[in-house]
């Protein structure tokens, strides 16, 4: 379309009179409008407004075209919103049919020598855990049993949620899902594209072997280096904790809406919450 306009501009140099140039503009507008009107005839309300549409088409075809294009944009936005809602429902359905028996059990002994650390104090275990992951492509954390239980109690109640991650072009949303002692995250775009086959880009695993005996839960986060860096993975983990500790009634309301009334959920509310956090820190 841009090339076609350029051709008309060059042709106008060889055609004298504004009237001729105007006729090119009207022909272009009517051609586009006629095409859109042909599509509109399938609308059940077309007959009701057909006369007014015809009058506006004769008086100001460009204005009619603009109004039609505005309406098309609104329709497209509604379609995109419905697709996002369907994606949320599909993700929820997936989480409901996955049984705990299908979840691979993970043990701290798979990555650490339990015999060497089981007699150590809580503070020593926390230090060993942190030092162990410093030079590795993981994120890690330690938490009190009460904090862990609070997070996972809310995780059972609200197993799915969205988290915004700041990017250069704006924000990217990540879908999180609680399952067993893990939290899986994938890009919402990946989920909309691949559905239940969407790959995880971040997995947070919580080890509870020392929860009762030492009073500490160890967390390790594995992330896709092709999609997230360490700071971005840590940002998502921090956001998850802020929501699921349940200390903010506003954030709890957002989680409840997302899981139980997705039609009322607004993505901009997540961004507003993140900007509040950034401002405070």
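Q: What amino acid sequence fits the structure above?
A:
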């Amino acid at each position: 379309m841009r090339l076609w306009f350029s051709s008309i501009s060059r042709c106008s140099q060889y055609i004298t009179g504004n009237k001729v140039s105007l006729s090119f503009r009207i022909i272009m507008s009517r051609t586009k409008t006629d095409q859109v009107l042909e599509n509109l005839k399938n609308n059940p309300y077309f007959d009701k407004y057909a006369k007014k549409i015809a009058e506006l088409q004769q008086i100001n075809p460009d204005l009619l075209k603009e109004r039609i294009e505005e309406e098309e944009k609104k329709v497209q936005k509604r379609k995109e919103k419905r697709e996002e809602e369907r994606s949320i429902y599909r993700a929820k359905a997936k989480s409901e049919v996955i049984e705990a028996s299908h979840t691979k059990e993970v043990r701290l002994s798979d990555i650490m020598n339990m015999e060497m650390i089981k007699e150590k104090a809580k503070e020593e275990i926390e230090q060993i855990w942190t030092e162990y992951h410093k030079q590795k492509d993981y994120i890690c954390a330690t938490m009190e049993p009460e904090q862990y239980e609070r997070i996972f109690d809310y995780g059972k109640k609200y197993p799915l949620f969205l988290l915004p991650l700041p990017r250069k072009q704006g924000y990217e949303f990540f879908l999180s899902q609680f399952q067993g002692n893990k939290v899986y995250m994938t890009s919402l775009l990946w989920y909309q594209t691949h559905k239940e086959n969407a790959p995880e880009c971040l997995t947070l695993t919580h080890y509870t072997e020392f929860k009762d005996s030492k009073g500490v839960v160890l967390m390790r986060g594995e992330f896709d280096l092709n999609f997230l860096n360490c700071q971005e993975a840590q940002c998502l983990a921090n956001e998850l904790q802020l929501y699921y500790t349940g200390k903010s009634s506003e954030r709890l309301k957002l989680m409840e809406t997302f899981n139980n009334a997705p039609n009322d959920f607004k993505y901009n509310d997540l961004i507003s919450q993140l900007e509040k956090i950034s401002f405070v820190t």
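Q: And what stands out in the fold?
A: The radius of gyration is 28 Å.
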